[in-house]
Amino acid sequence: MRLSELPRGAPAMVQDVEDAHPADPIAQRLRELGFVSGEPVRIVARGPLGGDPLLVQIGSTRFALRRSEAARVTVSQEATA
User: Fold this and answer.
1) Are strands 61-65 and 40-46 parallel, antiparallel or unpaired?
2) How many helices (H) and strands (E) does the chain have?
3) C-alpha to C-alpha distance for 27 and 35, rounded to whole angstroms
4) Which residue, among 28, 34, 27, 33, has the nearest Cα to 13 in the 3D structure?
5) Which residues contact 24 (CB under 8 A, 6 or more apart)?
6) φ, ψ dihedrals at 13, nearest 5°
7) Domains of the chain, CATH where assigned
8) Residue 51: its pLDDT value, please?
C-alpha cells in the first residue's frame, strides 16, 4: 500500500521509498528525513480539496507531504489490537 492511500489515523510501518527515476532527489530526501524500513508512520490529517497536502507523522516528527511525494513511500498497515 502507498502512504498516500493510508486511511487517516491508521498505524503503519514504512517498507520502502521508491525512486521515480534514477537518483530521485525527492526519494533521497524522504529517506534522509527518516522514511526508512521499519519506522512507524501515520497520516494525521489531509488537506481540503483533494487531500493535498498530507500531514504525516513519523516517529515524533510531522511533515507536510504532497500526495505525489507520499506515493513514493510503501507501507504495511499494522493490525489493530
Assistant:
1) unpaired
2) 3, 5
3) 9
4) 34
5) 72
6) -125, 140
7) 3-63 (2.30.30.90)
8) 77
Which residue reads 529517506 in cell numbers? 31
**Residue position matching grid coordinates 527515476:** 21
> How far apart are alpha carbons 72 and 81 in whole angstroms?
28
Q: pTM of the full predicted structure?
A: 0.87
- Three-class SS state of 49: helix
pLDDT per residue as tens digits for the range 18-62: 998 888 999 999 999 999 999 999 999 999 877 789 999 998 899
What are 19's three cell numbers? 525512486
**Which parts of 6-77 are beta strand (E)?**
12-17, 40-46, 54-58, 61-65, 73-77
